[in-house]
Design brief:
The chain is of the alpha+beta class and 182 residues long. 55% of the residues lie in helices and 16% in strands.
Amino acid sequence: MYNFLSFKTKLTEVEDWLGREYLSIRTGKATPAVLDSVMVESYGARTPLKHVAAIGIEDARTVRITPWDKSQLGAIQTAIEAANIGLSVSPDSSGLRAIFPMLTEERRKMLIKLTGDKLEDARISVRKEREKVWEEIQEQEKAGEMSEDDKYKAKDDLQKMIDEANAKLEALSKRKETEIMS
């Protein structure tokens, strides 16, 4: 029989990739994940924001950023503004507030289209992996390492895994679309 372990790992990697991509799509609701790409100039080195400050959700549209060192407030504000992620930043006595603007209907439609594009990219990756595995199965059968019955059983198992993976990807996409529209 064919060993699907590396194939299952690839499917998990594709699902994780899609999840990370969806985290980076801003929906108008406060989420600290949007700030993951922000790099702050801290003591002469570029450091991820989460390494120089505590980040938490204050309300539905506001993320609270509290630096470990208050002297870093200016550098953090500059880094968030330079990241050009569409947040307005306002400093106060103990830190910063990053405010998420409301989404327009046009922006929502664009984000849903982007969500669909990311889903299609993930599906393409799954199809490529399926083709590689199917070729390997056929080669094993030609080399006499597996019987024809085993080949077709492996093909059925492969299709079941593909269907499960596509269902998971679709569920991630539907959840993100619901988040965007609410």
